[in-house]
Write a structure and sequence with these properties.
The chain is α/β, with parallel strands linked by helices. It contains 15 helices and 11 strands. α3 (38-45) crosses α4 (49-65) and α7 crosses α8. The radius of gyration is 21 Å and the shape is globular. The structure holds adenosine-5'-triphosphate (ATP) and magnesium ion.
Length: 328
């Protein structure tokens, strides 16, 4: 899919004037049009509801043609067949892989949330390398897209991890496509363009580090909270649809404040990250524990809530010494 295919004027009945009105209302692509409600569209461009529904429907139809939107009614057998194609990427740690029943899944959005320094970015770097490993080593022999919103992508770190894992570092870097997202709209645009990259090279992993930082910064204050949640929700759904349509693994990160240990119950609620929570297929909470890191799987459709330990070292994400030696 290319961005041209998502251009508003490719739809019947949308001329330059309507296009401009839509853009003024923040609707830039067919994707935006498909996601906005008809009454919102009607209001934005001053047409009646019937016309707005027509625009909305033809936008949805276009997305279905492009494989970005599921058909409304699907036989369960088709879903079953598609799920047979789910593949897994090793995290670099056996412990963490076990927690995830074999690694990060394609056709799903996996969210890692935790406080600063808990290892979210390190894990993202590691996955960009491990996805390239041969299948017998837990990889998928494919590349990665890294959407960097906080300017924390470091090729030098990838170089180090690749070398430590026996891959050719420069080749490994060649297979990682980096996109810096300058604001939330840019971040959405980049995701809508993933298809055009995937068409050109084998990609099995998309990382968004961090998924929420821009939304959090741009939508400060209560008045805009609902809008932020709506935009974030839309972004997450777009990611999930891309993961499903392209059989990709999507990994997003979300920074949260660690709650003091005196509080029982949920150790850490993603501040304003609840929309992310509802859309992520898997949610893993990361916590610092001295030199180690603890990962806990939360809200999974079929994993019970449980936790494990991993470390960060020159290989990126790895198992603690004790467990690796025990397993030998
Ligand atoms: N080469 C390395 N070897 C060992 N540990 C490292 C190395 N590089 C980074 N780390 C560890 O990773 C930590 C940083 O983790 P990371 O950047 O992944 O955190 P984060 O969860 O992304 O935080 P933030 O929310 O601020 O983005 C460092 O504090 C350090 O402990
Ligand atoms: Mg980080």
């Amino acid at each position: 899919m290319s961005i041209e295919e998502l251009s508003l004027d490719t739809l019947d009945g949308i001329g330059p004037v309507t296009k401009q009105k839509l853009e003024n209302a923040g609707i830039y692509t067919v994707l935006d049009l498909a996601i906005r409600g008809p009454s919102e569209i009607a209001e934005a461009i001053g047409v009646d509801l019937k016309k707005a529904i027509e625009f909305n429907s033809s936008a949805r139809l276009r997305l279905m043609e492009l494989g970005l939107l599921e058909k409304e009614f699907i036989p369960a057998s088709e879903i079953y067949k598609k799920r047979q194609n789910i593949e897994r990427i090793t995290t670099g740690s056996k412990n963490l892989d076990e927690l995830l029943d074999g690694g990060i899944e394609t056709q799903a959005v996996t969210e890692f949330y935790g406080e600063f320094g808990s290892g979210k970015t390190q894990l993202c770097h590691t996955l960009c390398v491990t996805v390239q490993l041969s299948r017998d080593k837990g990889g998928l022999e494919a590349g990665a897209i890294y959407i960097d919103t906080e300017n924390t992508f470091r090729p030098e770190r990838v170089f180090q991890i690749a070398e430590a894992r026996g891959l050719e570092p420069l080749k490994t870097l060649d297979n990682i496509i980096v996109a810096k997202a300058y604001n939330s709209s840019h971040q959405e645009l980049i995701v809508s363009e993933i298809g055009s990259v995937v068409d050109k090279m084998p990609i099995k992993l998309v990382v968004v580090d961090s998924a929420v930082a821009h939304y959090r910064a741009e939508f400060l204050g209560r008045g805009t909270l609902a809008e932020r949640q709506q935009r974030l929700n839309r972004f997450m759904h777009l990611l999930l649809r891309t993961a499903e349509a392209r059989n990709l693994a999507v990994v997003v990160t979300n920074q949260v404040q660690a709650a003091p240990d005196v509080f029982f119950g949920d150790p850490s609620k993603p501040t304003g990250g609840h929309v992310v929570a509802h859309t992520s297929t898997y949610r893993i909470y990361l916590k610092k524990a001295g030199k180690n890191r603890i990962a806990r799987i939360i809200d999974s459709p079929y994993h019970p809530e449980r936790e494990t330990v991993f470390v960060l070292n020159e290989k990126g994400v790895d198992d603690p010494e004790e467990t690796t030696s025990k397993k030998r």
